[in-house]
Amino acid sequence: MDVMQVSIFLENKPGHLQNALQVLADRHINIRTLTIAEMSDFGIVRMIVNQPDAAVQALREKGFTCSSTEVLALELEDVPGTLSQTLETFRRHALNIEYMYAFTQKRGDRAVMIFKFGDMATAKRVLVEEGCNIVRGTDIAGTS
Questions:
Q1: H or E stretch including 4?
Q2: What is the pTM of this model?
Q3: For the segment 84-102, what is each residue's pLDDT rounded down to a tens digit?
């Protein structure tokens, strides 16, 4: 199963983020990690949750502009230089990263990074060929 990310487009004003997150809390949807890309008047909240389809539905019902998109979660050694080596693999194969962020919880002694590529199918194929460990959505989103 792929990792699905929920993205919410929010006006950059006090309380708007809390309102969106309360919608998820009311539906017992658990946020596993999140990041915010801020522009002057608006921001994009990107998050991995345990129930992405339910999250999008609940947010839309409350009038939020949101979507879900596939991202890749890669398990990396948690030692200096690993991310740089991984980025070198991307460069060698001309994989363009649209954005990335760290997953907040480790898998054993390994870190997990979330990546969005311009060409997700090619990225998956290349990373499997290179021996990268792509983490399944069910393994990081959980069910609680």
A1: strand 3-11
A2: 0.84
A3: 999 999 999 999 999 999 8
